[in-house]
Amino acid sequence: MNRRRFPGLILLVLFTWLCMLLTGCSHKAQTGAYTVVDARGRKVAFKAEPKKVLTDSLHLDETVLTLVPASRLAAAYYLSGEPGISFVAEETRALPKLRQYTPEAVASYHPDVFFASDWSDPLLLRKVEEMGIPVFICHGPVTVAEVEDNVRLMAAVLHQEEVGRRVIRIMEQELGQIDAAIGKEHGRKPVGLLLSLMSQYGGAGSLFDELAARGGWINGLAKGGLKNGMPLTEEAVLAAQPDFFLVSQPYEEEKEAYEAFQKDFFSQPAYRDLARTCRMEALPDRYVYDASPQLVYGIKAMANCAYGRTIFPREPENVLKGFE
Predict the structure, then answer these.
(1) Cβ atoms of 194 and 211 closer than 8 Å
(2) Which residues contact 57 (CB under 8 A, 6 or more apart)?
(3) Which domains does the chain have, with CATH numbers?
(4) Span 196-210, pLDDT tens digits
(5) What is the arithmetic mean of pLDDT over 2-20?
(6) What is the pTM of this model?
(7) pLDDT higher at 21 or 114
(8) Minimal CA–CA distance to 72: which of 91, 89, 44, 98?
(9) Statement: residue 246 has pLDDT above 80
(10) Strands 191-194, 218-219: parallel, antiparallel or unpaired by DSSP?
């Protein structure tokens, strides 16, 4: 054998060994321990990619299911299976439902991560952490940007970064189409006033307020001077001068309470004229309160109500999944 070939052969072997070593290290970095910074700026450590996930709310279940299949959920929030308020009722149909969140209930499902919101019960979260379960805080979103950031955060935890980027691209595409359609609407913007059992929800600074603006209509609660968290008042209702009331098509559990609320509201003398002159536009709650990527469907449905005609035709309301 030609001795001159030995140096080249040795270099080739060394190069191949180095590539294998680097590949192995890279794989270990992806599958081993890692940390992700949550919505509060806190580093959360994970020993490995979570295989079983649990959340404490509907919007987090809906966001998880844009990133991974339902088989990754250890259980679902109890309202996730209610089609009147959930876009993932079918996806979560076979899953156990959790309503009473106690540390023991959470631990009984053996999740690898517990996703919660910055509005969640801090005592519960502390107790769950003390049980050795990683708790990751997401936004209780009040803007579309925070909804998208929740996708990024949860994707990082689940090692689904590219899937998360696809979800956000789908969202942005939908929002761009909405902007284009609303941009063709000219003249006076209609004013709508939300009548909700959550009587302190929907004012300026809420996610609902941004969804109204995205849909090209004026949120009467904000126009009446209310900020999110402020109770509905007679002065605010009258100052809003609404063209329509946005009312609920309540799901079964809240139907009796909502009907009593609406009857009481319109029985008040100050609102009797409004009851006669304003349109009543009823929608299932999933369009009004959604705080996941599926909120694009709510913008469209509420815009149709606001303008009293079909700007956005009905379409399949598929979960905006970033995976096949």
Answers:
(1) no
(2) 77, 116, 117, 120
(3) 31-171 (3.40.50.1980), 187-307 (3.40.50.1980)
(4) 998 899 999 999 999
(5) 48
(6) 0.88
(7) 114
(8) 91
(9) yes
(10) parallel
